[in-house]
Amino acid sequence: MITVLTTRTLLTTALLTAGTAGLLPAVSAQAAAAPAPLWATATRQAAEQSARPTVPTLVDVRAAHHPGLDRLVFEFRGPVPARYSARYVKQLIGDPSGRPVRAVGDALLKVRFTKATGHDGNGATYGPARRTYSLPGVVQVVSTGDDEAVLSFGVGLAKRTPYRVYALNRPSRVVVDISTPYRTVMARNHFLNLRNFNTGHEPYTTAVLRPVIPPGTAYGALQRLFAGPTQSERAQGLRFISSRATGFSKLTITKGVARVYLTGRCTSGGSTFTVADEIIPTLKQFPSVKWVKIYNAAGQTERPTGPSDSIPECLEP
């Protein structure tokens, strides 16, 4: 039997074939534009995050004495910073403020880390920005900068001595070993005891021990006083009341009279307790000191002569 295809039948078949062929690309494009499964997106994001370089984050600063040296340790979360260095400087300068940063000590060591940070969204990640130690060499460690992945600290030392810097892993640490090739003796610092003062129970000061280098024991004790209490002593309620003084420029002891020349502003703030109440007992522990005369930055004190203690007018309540 012979089937006869009419012109209309052929035309209909051609149109159907062409229409079907035109639909196939549209279906493929729609399938390609379909969103990726959630698990695939999460996997891709995790891979991207793991590929990003980890910036070392400072999580602890600590120091301790070992035979012949003080060891200062900076511990990081993540890898050791790409670059780290230490050098002696005449003055500590804040980064990026450009302003001087005060640290107590006869020598100043600046420690710097590149490609590292010491903060997160909640603030500092390593604790207080200024801390005091009761060690033969390390007196104080202060933060001098944490900006654009550059982290720096100033270290106040009792004396300028050789040092070395190196890195350790597991955990990531940068270590500064500072030589202490000298003898020390213990001296007392007197700090305000907040609990006693607030409850009116004398004495208002509590004595703590500090290592100082002879023969300048009185000078060393006064220097340590201006460094303030250690973190553990602060936890016990001890405070250093500076009365806005930033330190002292000179200490002389002649014929039983110690003369202390303060630096910075000098004000009692109306308080009956001032820096004089810490300086006087700290210096009178030494047999060579019977009287203490304290001068302001202008070289003034109320009773510059005679057998008596003396304070500047700015320390009066």
From TrEMBL:
Pfam families in the cross-refs: AMIN-like
Domain (AMIN-like) ranges: 57-179
InterPro entries: AMIN-like, TAT_signal
Keywords: Signal
PROSITE patterns: TAT
Signal sequence extent: 1-31
Protein name stated in the entry: AMIN-like domain-containing protein
Native organism: Planobispora siamensis
